[in-house]
Amino acid sequence: MVLTDDEEAAIKAAVLGGSADIDVHWILYCGTLVFLMQTGFAMLCAGSIRAKNAQNILLKNLLDACVGAIWFWATGYAFAYGQSGSDKNWFIGNNYFFLSKGYEGGDGYHNWFFQFAFAATAATIVSGAVAERCSMTAYAAYSAFLTGFVYPVVVHWVWSGTGWLSAWKATGNRAAWLNVGVVDFAGCGVVHMVGGAAAGIGAAVLGPRIGRFAGENPGPIKGHSMPLVVLGTFFLWVGWYGFNPGSTLYIGGVSTVASRVAVTTTLAAASGGVANLFIHYKLSQTYDVAEMCNGILAGLVSITSACPVVEPWAAVVIGPIGAVFYTLGAKLLVKLEIDDAVNATPVHYFAGCWGLLAPALFARKEHMREAYGNADVGGLFYTGQGNMLACNFVALIAITIWVGALMTPFFILLKKAGWFRVPENIEIEGLDDSKHGGSAYGIELAAADVRKAAERV
Amino acid sequence: MVLTDDEEAAIKAAVLGGSADIDVHWILYCGTLVFLMQTGFAMLCAGSIRAKNAQNILLKNLLDACVGAIWFWATGYAFAYGQSGSDKNWFIGNNYFFLSKGYEGGDGYHNWFFQFAFAATAATIVSGAVAERCSMTAYAAYSAFLTGFVYPVVVHWVWSGTGWLSAWKATGNRAAWLNVGVVDFAGCGVVHMVGGAAAGIGAAVLGPRIGRFAGENPGPIKGHSMPLVVLGTFFLWVGWYGFNPGSTLYIGGVSTVASRVAVTTTLAAASGGVANLFIHYKLSQTYDVAEMCNGILAGLVSITSACPVVEPWAAVVIGPIGAVFYTLGAKLLVKLEIDDAVNATPVHYFAGCWGLLAPALFARKEHMREAYGNADVGGLFYTGQGNMLACNFVALIAITIWVGALMTPFFILLKKAGWFRVPENIEIEGLDDSKHGGSAYGIELAAADVRKAAERV
Amino acid sequence: MVLTDDEEAAIKAAVLGGSADIDVHWILYCGTLVFLMQTGFAMLCAGSIRAKNAQNILLKNLLDACVGAIWFWATGYAFAYGQSGSDKNWFIGNNYFFLSKGYEGGDGYHNWFFQFAFAATAATIVSGAVAERCSMTAYAAYSAFLTGFVYPVVVHWVWSGTGWLSAWKATGNRAAWLNVGVVDFAGCGVVHMVGGAAAGIGAAVLGPRIGRFAGENPGPIKGHSMPLVVLGTFFLWVGWYGFNPGSTLYIGGVSTVASRVAVTTTLAAASGGVANLFIHYKLSQTYDVAEMCNGILAGLVSITSACPVVEPWAAVVIGPIGAVFYTLGAKLLVKLEIDDAVNATPVHYFAGCWGLLAPALFARKEHMREAYGNADVGGLFYTGQGNMLACNFVALIAITIWVGALMTPFFILLKKAGWFRVPENIEIEGLDDSKHGGSAYGIELAAADVRKAAERV
């Protein structure tokens, strides 16, 4: 007998306490990585568009983080996870508005922090799609609406303990739908499809940029800085190491799951990137850096649901298929003359659709038990069971309808009111000159170099 | 009885050991995030100035990190926290110079790492303020003086167990001043006011850049790369998730505090950013990205003292008031014709002053108990008590006087000796050409593009 | 008696479990930091070369991460650490190809993740050295060969429990060589010398860039963006806080070691940077930012073997000597007309050689016990023992021979086949225009600015 009673009590509190310190540490760490994705989106978007609108897109990305924080504090978390004793329902949460006092003793602030970072991620997916022509006011309104209402409701459906699609009910009193519910671990459906669908709808309602599909020489509009694109992509990849592994929500007892997630996430990103590089080399005879980046992102999105329940080899299959979905989605948008300036919709919506279905095919029962406490259901390819496929497919449809039904009229109203798009002359001149006090880049750079360059011309 | 005696002993060592492993992990993680802020300052400063001085400012930021490490190893930590048995005093530490051997068994190396990152942060605040005209030698001398002496003394006053302003004495044998001491959790006063005051004094003594307040067309001098400014701002925000939550110094038993800190930090940044965007839209009819960034930073600075002891709603109040302090500070500098090239003084000193007073108004007793082990004193608005306001106000004055009394003669001596400022012709030409072997940017960029561009002109 | 049997069991599992959760958390965190170094290399390399090849180098860095992941999954980890019961050998691992099932219960996926990030680091060292003229196909082939075979074998030798150079045998049944084995904690030899030697050989076989050592005005070729260089350097420094401290492989029970590593890493980086700034100021009368960066990196490389076993003061000695090795190495390459576009060979190979010898001089026995469980052997300067120096010197020779014997014919074959180097006209025009669809930077930047700039010329 080594320990005194006081020591035993202290150890019990430290190790078995309701919200153990190590879990909080894990979630604060992972949440910070997810927040780093804001930097990634900002750099990726800025690099992918023309320099004359760089300040504008940077400001939109900053706004996403800020407006997202404020609205997710005000209403978002409440709609997503707010539950009080008897008053639980399958559709929407209704407690903890403005992180009111009762919250702290309940869920713990670290969970708000982690979930906020997710909400801001969902919101910022849109910024690139509507870049170079969307007004600032409209964008701020959209950002508030998505983080404050549209996104949280989907969270409630899939991730709260009472949502109609939740897989977590399986471990509670009420049974999950088809004995499994929707297996969307880190949010192919909840985050990426929501953001990606909103992006596609926004771009469609807003209309293409001048010169993209009409005018003298219509065609793709190149970005202005590939280093920023690659920098952003790497940040997103790094951030995904918080996004996916952190979705365990704890580390105590689930570190094996978090480890597997880090591995499958890595392999899907890598294989998705290589696959997309080859696909687009076949299509264009060019080693296209932007397509390599989007392939990595498509791979990351694709594994986001399945990451804890599949084997590493499956990640190497899932990532490249995600690149195919991405590429087909991008082709479809061009055919429909929807101008998504950074291909956010193909990356997040189309690869997200595939990713949401992937666990239903590749999930192993052993891993389902570890990650979901549910050893009864596995993926179609292992078990022949179609339960998960049915659940996840319903989620795919439901999320698409929900976002479509809310965002389409929202964007159309903005358009009718004349608030959505900047005037044509401003679009041509560039938003930075008229709205943001001039170019994102200083003239002095050119001043010195141009003289020397001019001599060489 | 499940555990053997050996297992009990092992568990005791792991969980209750003097410096538990989880705490070390937490501090190494948070310290690394704080170190990332060096990257943030470097990018923010580089983007905020003209391209012709970009190499110069980058080198100064690299020097801060390096010189700061060396001096904080040599003397800084010793002056801040070095204590030997009976030889403790209220003014300055006097042990552990060069991390001498006794240190390791005492405080633990992770604490040096964390505190070094803070010292380097304090130092680097100045680099932007004196940019585009300060000589490299003078800057290196300043950096050594601040990290080796000026800053550590303030640390000793406020954060060591024996400093005259310390709140931590409340939990020790000797009572803290007014039964509370100075509540400056992560260092509005200790870090930001010290760095910010040094920045303002440096800029004032150095004099404005040519063309800023005199000459043909005096006026604000725009930076050369807004993507770098935004990149730097995001890094600083990310780094603050180490700076503030890590100031718990442990995670074991205080994870609730760290969680609350992450939330209040987020909300103050977000609300400060939005507030400043609107303030400057009102002032200039421009959605000014740099002001959005400075608003976020002012919000972050503002919450740095109060972060563990206030409610989330208070953060949403504190951040925007920080933006107001920032804006008024910036106006004041312009009126005084003090040229702070990146507005470091308004962000760190003026918003820092507000931030130091904020907990004295908004602190909840329950949270004071959790964060400071002191349930007797709360903020004025909750309790009507003025103790904390008195303490923190005295700290505000004391820190300002200390930094002013040391840095003013230091900078004036540098100026008298002719070491502080580069010659006028070099300032006009740009420091990079004469001191750093040419432009920060390669001619080839322009060479290819200029030809095509010239055709379009 | 406070705890029930169930609670005791739960505490035992959580704290003493085979792979404790806190260790997994630590390794996932450190591995993510190491992965961030990919971003660092990408930005550093891109900034260090001409803008006309920026897309090309960015793509190579993306490929490193992706190809490295796929090959380290397929064969790399197996060759490095794959061991089955009786079938262990001193040369190469032979189990766990494609992370086959038995793996998970064994080493744990977090270890694969951490080791993958190291492999990708070793691979990416080469990208800068062969920049601006190496073909994409050749680079992908090299990357696969290094991460899939060359590097893992060295890992097996030095870091596995059975390798012929391993220090870890000291704690097992069979004795380590000379009672100590090779003390290469985080991989001066295993990672940096392998990558650096491959870089030097690649650059030598490939031949210099046009205009570097011959032609009209031969001479150093400047990079195009110093902010990217500094950004990359800072990321590498940050990433090193995962690379070195994470090489404890656990945090439970070794947090003191990890803490010391963070401190020595910091001080070697800082002192290496300052030393190299002064060395090159003496050589060129220029405060050269790129040399400051390379000095920091040389300092970081230099401490990578010795970090857990030396005192902080020794780090301040080791770092600057690393800068001297770097500088001499760089001079040597110029003399041999080997064109390493970013000086990767001097940073990683030459400073790596010094770093591998450093612990043999400066290691303290007390620290050897903590880090290696070996209290019998210390550094030459403390103990007069030459054991470690002999072991580490043999490793230096063995690694150099191994890499040379494999990479030299590999690169020569690529060259003979005509696959290694792009045609001369493409090199002159820039790889981006012909291979990657145009410049990394958008014309619009210049378009607006050039007009205004032209007016000022």
CATH superfamily of chain A: Ammonium transporter AmtB like domains
| Gross CATH architecture of chain A | Orthogonal Bundle
What is the percent of helical residues of chain A? 55-70%
Please outline the major beta sheet of chain A: none
Mean of residue pLDDT of chain A? 92
What is the percentage of strand-forming residues of chain A? under 5%
Return residue spans of chain A where pLDDT drops below 50 for at least 5 consecutive residues. none
Please count the helical segments of chain A: 18
Q: What is the end-to-end distance of chain A?
A: 86 Å
Give me the oligomer status: homotrimer
CATH class of chain A: Mainly Alpha
Largest interface, counted by CB within 8 Å of the partner chain's CB: A-C, 73 and 74 residues
Report the principal-axis shape of chain A. Answer: globular
Radius of gyration of chain A, whole Å:
23 Å
Query: How many strand elements of chain A?
Result: 0
Order of helices and strands of chain A: HHHHHHHHHHHHHHHHHH
The tally of domains of chain A stands at 1
CATH topology of chain A: Ammonium transporter fold
Judged by helices, strands and strand pairing, the structural class of chain A is: mainly alpha
Summarize the topology.
The structure is a homotrimer of 457-residue chains.
Chain A: H1 5-16, H2 21-48, H3 54-81, H4 102-106, H5 109-129, H6 136-159, H7 188-206, H8 226-243, H9 255-284, H10 289-302, H11 312-335, H12 344-362, H13 365-372, H14 380-383, H15 387-416, H16 424-429, H17 431-435, H18 443-456
Domain Ammonium transporter AmtB-like (chains A, B, C): 26-441
GO biological process, one term (chains A, B, C): ammonium homeostasis
Family (chains A, B, C): Belongs to the ammonia transporter channel (TC 1.A.11.2) family.
